[in-house]
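<context>
A single protein, sequence plus fold
<entry> Chain with its tokenised backbone below
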Amino acid sequence: MKDNTTMHTTWFGIFILANGEIVDSKLFPKDPKILAKLKMQRDDDKILEQEKELAESVDGKLYVTSRRLSELGEFVSEFHLDIKQEDHSYDKELFRDMMQKLGRLKLKEQSDAGEHLAKAVNTVQDLNETINLLTERLRDWYAVHFPEFVDRYKEDIAIHVFKHGTRDEISKALDLNIDSTGEDISDEQREFYQNLAENIVRQKEFRDELVDYIEDTMENSAPTITHLTGPRLGAELIAQAGSLKKLAMMPSSTIQLLGAEKSLFRHLKKGTPPPKHGYILQHPYVHGAAKKNRGKVARILANKIAIAARIDYFGGEPAGDRLKGELKDKLKKIK
């Protein structure tokens, strides 16, 4: 350890040391709920307000013993001073109570995030259906006015109709030299076109915001699943299950068939061949497998997803690399 002013944070307080001696400190309240919340903030790599206050009170250079605090001072890894909890009237029972509260907080956070995630995915799916339907209506309707534009621009006609409205304005903006066979329109009709197009544009913007939220939430709340499946497929599985908690409680055989409920129902009712996979057919390992092997690959992948869901929900150390490596090893044997 360098013989300079150093900040070190423990579960019960923050300490400023100079030449191996404690020169200042801020002890946390002896309340397990508060201690758990402070510990959770630190686990999320957040800097505590108390740490900022102590850092500001230091004259000269400050060293810190956690990379989390790097913006407050220079990180040093060699720190060997043992600051004992009993020397500051904090006991093991309080530590145990704090850890129990912390576990409950993390479970609640994971559950809430999983439920919000499921609702967001379902909303994106609904928005996609609505956007596709309204876009088809706009294409069909606007073709009366400017059929050549509709035929040439298969995608994103909504943004052009919203911005420009009329055939002449669109032709000018896109530098189109077309002798159109479409009908002229009134100002009232143009307004209808643009209102419908704006509706589509706004819904696309909102959908894109939700997709960003889903990807961020997956990275933070389900990192192991995300590494194994990618954020989109992982989110769809959580949505179909209803929450991350429900996915974590499912057997792998159920996960394998998530999204294939209709096929399973037909199998049970009419005796059609049973489905071998649901949403996980989207995974490149399943989709890219030989048809005769897809059922086996889907079963192995579902097993790893079940393990990943339990790790993410119960707060284990993310293990995406390990599970993906095990998955690849098993697939090599199948091939």
Summary: The beta strands are 6-9, 13-18, 21-27, 63-64, 74-75. Residues 92-142 form the longest helix (51 residues). Residues 6-90 form a domain with the Nucleotidyltransferase; domain 5 fold (CATH 3.30.420.220).
